[in-house]
């Protein structure tokens, strides 16, 4: 996630038996919140993003999950490009479109992320940092 880590994220995570009930309740709420997000996440993953080469001769569509759903060759693409150049152009357009689709998906997911899930992620990051050498 792209949320800002507060100053308390840099302190080692210390286990306390008093926190167990709070963490268990937080985990329960986070799982429930994730269940309610399922349909929206599937919709976002299926959303299509379109991309084109600069000259418009090559077009592609991919989903937010990165699945290629369409590749189009327009105009005189087969005559304009030799087979090597055509492969390069298709690959470049596909990669750029997949990256845009992925970025749009991740941003939308970040905006949808419930506070309970964000808090669980923060605690996990904090726990991982506390295990790094030098803590």
Describe this protein's structure.
With 135 residues, this protein is α+β, with helices and mostly antiparallel strands. Helix content is 58%, strand content 13%. The chain contains four helices and three strands. A three-stranded antiparallel β-sheet has the order 1-2-3. Helix 1 crosses helix 3 and helix 1 crosses helix 4. The radius of gyration is 22 Å and the shape is elongated. The two termini are 23 Å apart.
Query: What's the end-to-end separation, in Å?
Result: 23 Å
E-strand count: 3
In round numbers, the mean pLDDT is 85
Indicate the structural class: alpha+beta
What is the 3D shape? elongated
String of helices and strands = HEEEHHH
Q: Extract low-pLDDT stretches.
A: none
Strand-residue fraction? 5-15%
Number of helices: 4
Helix content: 55-70%
Radius of gyration over alpha carbons? 22 Å
Main sheet specs: 3 strands, antiparallel
Task: Tell me the strand order in the biggest sheet.
Answer: 1-2-3
Write the layout of secondary structure elements.
Blueprint: H1 20-46, E1 48-52, E2 58-63, E3 68-73, H2 77-80, H3 83-112, H4 115-131
Antiparallel strand pairs: 1-2, 2-3
Helix pairs in contact: 1-3, 1-4
């Amino acid at each position: 996630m792209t949320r800002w880590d507060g100053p308390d994220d840099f302190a080692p995570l210390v286990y306390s038996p008093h926190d167990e009930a709070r963490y268990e309740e937080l985990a329960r709420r986070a799982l429930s919140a994730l269940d309610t997000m399922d349909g929206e996440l599937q919709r976002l993953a299926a959303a299509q993003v379109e991309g084109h080469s600069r000259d418009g001769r090559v077009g592609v569509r991919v989903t937010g999950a990165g699945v290629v759903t369409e590749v189009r060759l327009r105009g005189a693409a087969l005559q304009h490009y030799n087979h090597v150049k055509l492969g390069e152009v298709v690959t470049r357009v596909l990669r750029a479109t997949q990256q845009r689709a992925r970025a749009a998906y991740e941003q939308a997911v970040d905006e949808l992320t419930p506070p309970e899930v964000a808090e669980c992620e923060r605690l996990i990051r904090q726990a991982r940092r506390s295990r790094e050498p030098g803590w």
